[in-house]
Amino acid sequence: MDGPATSPFGILGGESAVRALVDAFYDRMDVDEAYAGIRALHPPTLDSSRDKLAWYLCGWLGGPQRYVERFGRPRLRARHLPYAIGRSERDQWLACMRAALGDAGVEPGFAAKRMGAFEGTADWMRNRED
User: What is the dotted CATH code of the domain comprising 8-124?
Assistant: First the structure.
């Protein structure tokens, strides 16, 4: 495991646990109509999206900086500006991630803390008012 055991990355269980969470997220997004709005913002195959989110979350949680090593600073908002992200997309993303945390068996207290952080970021990503 890369990263201290006391970091969120270590507490979650390292890179394999991050990948399991990301896979649960995209597996759910790919089949559940409740997330059709955000699924439509992604390419037909989700392999690249899975990798990028997993690499990003590794670093965001205090583990290895896989995303930065490949692409430089995340600049999340700038990278997402080409996509229309409003309240509906924000809420779908958050609901899908909340469900994925449960699907991946993440401890509820830890999941709640991560959701608090995800909520702020997801709201900041909005680039339209609807």
Answer: 1.10.490.10
Predicted TM-score (pTM) of this structure:
0.93
The residues spanned by each domain of the chain are 8-124
Q: Residues 10-16: contacts with CB within 8 Å, 24+ apart?
A: 10/62, 10/63, 11/110, 12/61, 12/106, 12/110, 14/63, 15/54, 15/58, 15/63, 15/64
What SS3 state is found at 7? coil
Residue 106: partners with Cβ closer than 8 Å, 6 or more residues away: 12, 17, 21, 114
pLDDT of amino acid 28? 97
Q: Under a CB-based contact definition with an 8 Å cutoff, are residues 56 and 97 in contact?
A: no
